[in-house]
Write a structure and sequence with these properties.
Number of helices: 11
Structural class: alpha/beta
CATH superfamily of the largest domain: Isopropylmalate Dehydrogenase
CATH architecture of the largest domain: 3-Layer(aba) Sandwich
Number of domains: 2
Bound molecules: 1,4-dihydronicotinamide adenine dinucleotide, magnesium ion
CATH topology of the largest domain: Isopropylmalate Dehydrogenase
Strand content: 15-25%
Length: 355
């Protein structure tokens, strides 16, 4: 029987609540599946770790993530915990995303049943696209390195040919494996870029159009990000796969979350050629920490994405179906603010009952 060692980062604020719920779902899934086992190794990291030890993550914890079959991470961070330069200290984007060269941030936006979408007329599955956010360069290449002084600051956006080629290819490969956009079934990759104003985006666009030529079976189109913000609200069923620069992907994926019942429905994968880790799209939600109302679906679905990535596809589908059923049958209910109003752990139990 296959055994996978999984590095687990419980995170800050709502992180540990979500992780407990999602690990219970993974435990139940491996038991029912019977074809593999998961061995969890806890790695402490984040804002609380910074406060106690002066670093967001120890070298040993980073080594454990490199050695593991995969990494399962809850949200980290706390707006109150900052470096002397004024940026947040407990985040792991630098050490994990850049450090492990995880260039594709995969963020599915899918409408599940029973979720409070503010959009009208969409059936479950009627919104189903994935944002591929470039994860190692773009504006966030300047993470913590901005230059200037008290009266002016500059952060530089970096777009490279190699960095763009690999993430655009990743997006087209993802489209090949999907079933096309809900509106018309067409396999489509949409490049979001601001080449009307910035030269870095003009390069991103040029490379996108070059690579699109290698994929005749997938439709390719481009859109400016301001227009995309409207389109993802007014015409989301048109979209299948979207690829974009780092900051744009950060923003538009939260917008997508707002259309499908909130960020608590949004899982993400950070994927490179060698390593990967899986986490919710959202942050550590200090406003609801400890209240047992965080929606664990994001963390549970991130667990399913992780199983899919390590090759346990049928176990991943089992989790997605169980969540779908729990929502459809009203056993897991998400209120209009995106919260699991019957409790985080009882939401997980509703999923487990259907595994
Ligand atoms: P956030 O994503 O934590 O929260 C935004 C809003 O969504 C809040 O009202 C929150 O209550 C709600 N929300 C988030 N997840 C939810 C869930 N599962 N169920 C129900 N409601 C949910 O963003 P915010 O407040 O800007 O950031 C909080 C902290 O998280 C900061 O320290 C930030 O730097 C960090 N962060 C960490 C990330 C990570 O670990 N990957 C990603 C984004 C932010
Ligand atoms: Mg974000």
């Amino acid at each position: 029987m296959k055994n996978y060692r999984i590095a687990v980062i419980p995170g800050d604020n709502i992180g540990p609540e979500l992780m407990k719920a999602a690990l219970a779902v993974l435990e139940a899934t491996q038991k029912v599946d019977g074809g593999f086992t998961l061995e969890f190794e806890t790695c402490l990291a984040g804002a609380a770790h910074y406060t106690e030890h002066g670093t967001a993550m120890s070298d040993e914890a980073i080594a454990a993530c490199r050695a593991a079959a995969s990494v399962f991470k809850a949200p980290v961070g706390d707006p109150a915990v900052r470096t002397p330069e004024g940026i947040e200290a407990g985040l792991l984007g630098g050490v994990l995303r850049t450090g492990l060269d995880l260039y594709a941030n995969v963020r599915p936006v899918k409408l599940y049943p029973g979720t409070p979408t503010p959009l009208h007329g969409y059936q479950p599955g009627g919104i189903d696209y994935v944002i591929i956010r470039e994860n190692t360069e773009g504006l966030y290449a300047s993470r913590g390195k901005g230059v200037g002084g008290p009266n002016a600051m500059a952060d530089t956006m970096i777009v490279t040919r190699a960095g763009t080629e690999r993430v655009v290819r990743f997006a087209f490969e993802a489209a090949k494996k999907r079933n096309g956009a809900p509106a018309d079934g067409v396999r489509r990759v949409t490049c979001v870029e601001k080449s009307n104003v910035l030269r870095s985006f003009a390069l991103f666009r040029e490379i996108f159009l070059e690579i699109a030529g290698e994929y005749p079976g997938v439709e390719a189109e481009t859109i400016y990000p301001d227009a995309a913000a409207q389109a993802l609200v007014m015409n989301p069923a048109h979209y299948d796969v979207l690829v974009m620069e780092n900051l744009l992907g950060d923003i538009l994926s939260d917008l997508g979350g707002g259309t499908i019942g909130g960020l608590g429905m949004c899982p993400g994968g950070n994927i490179g050629d060698q390593y990967a880790y899986f986490e919710p799209v959202h942050g550590s939600a200090p406003d609801i920490a400890g209240l047992d109302i965080a929606n664990p679906a994001s963390q549970i679905l991130a667990g399913a994405m992780m199983l899919d990535h390590i090759g346990e596809e049928s176990a991943a589908r089992r989790i997605e179906s169980a969540l779908w059923l729990a929502l459809e049958e009203g056993e897991l209910s998400i209120d209009e603010r995106g919260r699991a109003n019957r409790g985080t752990m009882s939401a997980a139990e509703a999923v487990i009952a259907r595994i």
